[in-house]
Amino acid sequence: MTIPADSLPLKHGTGLDLLEGLVVIDLTGSVAGPYAGQLLGDLGATVIKVERPGGGDDCRAWGPPFLDDESLWFLSVNRNKLAVSLDVSAPLGHATLLKIVKKADIVLLNVVGRVQRKLGIDYATLSAANPALIHVSITGFGLTGERADLPCYDLIAEGYSGVMDMTGEPDGPPQKVGTPAADLLAGEDAALAAVAAVVRRLRVGKGAAIDISLVESMTRFMAPRLMPHLGSGEKMRRSGGRDSVIAIYQPFETADLPLTLGLGNDGIWRRFWEVLGDLEVADNPSYATNAQRRQHRADIVAMIASRLVERPRDEWLALFAAARVPAGPIYRLDEIGADAALRRRGFLYSLVRDGHRVPQVGLGIQFDGESEAVAHPPPRMGADNVAVLGNWLGLEATEIEALSCAGII
Predict the structure, then answer these.
(1) φ, ψ at 235 (rounded to 5°)
(2) Whole-angstrom Cα distance, residue 96 to residue 89?
(3) For position 119, which CATH number holds?
(4) In this structure, are 346 and 330 located in the same domain?
(5) How far is CA 202 from CA 102, 131, 135, 196, 342, in A?
(6) 297-351 pLDDT per residue, tens
(7) Region 126-143 average pLDDT
(8) H or E segment at 62?
(9) What is the pTM of this model?
């Protein structure tokens, strides 16, 4: 079987140095926390991933599919990290963690406050060892409130946020978003908050206790839908992606493949009908404004649908691109992987780990024309025990051996 990663370009470049010198301790597992750590690592921070000996990050086992016996989910959110195995629940392991924390700037966690206190990794405990520490918690519901101790996954947060109720066909069941949206949004929030706290620390010398909630990150993502309800009382429901405050903003069928079309202002509306050669519709005073077009939306959609089936998708897309009408394909995953433009931008690439080509989806942010490089492929568990505990932390070889013999690493 052909593996798409084998055709992706290998990543080259020196990488980003915006956060060079910052040390991040990533105590998280699954997706949200590791994604936050990867973002910080991509921006140049030194990220040390700390996992319990044995199983490690739960995400390592999430599959199939696997690549070189490792979950591809794990490989998607753990590049640019060093890996240490450490049992922080054991007294000797906790003491070792505190030594690492004293040299760190940021610590990332994704366990509820009760577990943080039980393990001695809560803000009060860790900031006592390092008063300037930026302590970032990612939990389902936040560290306070009546839900603070409840377990949560992305699926649960999506349900609470309303995004599932707004996704799917009107007469069908609610649907989860096709990616772990709450996890990724919360991870982005954690990285952003950590960087903001670093800026404040530079100004006033103060650390921070940051509280990120999957439910609140995902619900904030719903603000453009939630705010109209809060301000008007209108109860909006899912529409299969065929409704918006923009009158025409949806997928349409063509002669072969579907496309998306967004006629977001009056100028685009007119250019669209110029492409179709129908200025009578463009100049119809009943359709002059977006509000009027929403009133007549059903009729307009029917007119557009009847016209777009006359030609294949790619012909329409070429015409719309020339006329600056927002339109695009509805890509399958294999089409994304083959997208030449994304490859040329350096957004889709591969790296080599243990002789295997590992695909990567890039940071998608460029600074001075450069984006992330990969100094460290997604690590095997404990792969950097000696480098971190010995070379960086300064433990003697006999001390590391003792930790290993005791099952602490």
Answers:
(1) -95, 105
(2) 11
(3) 3.40.50.10540
(4) no
(5) 17, 14, 16, 10, 37
(6) 999 999 999 999 999 999 999 999 999 999 999 999 999 999 999 999 999 999 9
(7) 98
(8) none
(9) 0.93
Among 89, 84, 22, residue whose Cα is nearest residue 57: 84
Active site residue 299: no
In whole angstroms, give the CA distance from residue 409 to residue 396: 14
Domain total of the chain: 2
Phi-psi map region of 69: left, alpha, beta (phi>0 left; psi -120 to 50 alpha): left
Q: Which of 270, 292, 272 is nearest to 282 (CA)?
A: 270
Domain check: are 139 and 278 in the same one?
no
The continuous run of DSSP H or E covering 60 comes out as none
Concatenating the DSSP letter of every residue in 326-340 gives -EEE---HHHHHT-H
Range of the domain at 350: 4-221+342-405
352, 376, 332, 362: which is closest to 67 by C-alpha?
A: 352
What's the CA angle centered on 233, arms 153 and 173, to 5 degrees?
A: 40
Could you tell me if 42 and 34 are in contact, meaning their C-beta atoms sit under 8 angstroms apart? Answer: no
225-246 pLDDT, tens digit each: 999 999 999 888 888 877 778 9
Mean of the per-residue pLDDT values of the chain = 95
Residues 26, 105, 183, 189: which is the catalytic one? 183
Do 259 and 346 have their domain in common? no
Sign of CA dihedral 56, 59, 60, 64: positive
Pairing relation of β-strands 259-262 and 327-329?
antiparallel
User: Which of 284, 305, 335 is where one domain is finished?
Assistant: 335
- CA distance linking residue 119 with residue 94, whole number of Å: 8
Identify residue 135 by its one-letter amino acid code.
Answer: H
Last residue of a domain, one of 335, 353, 384: 335
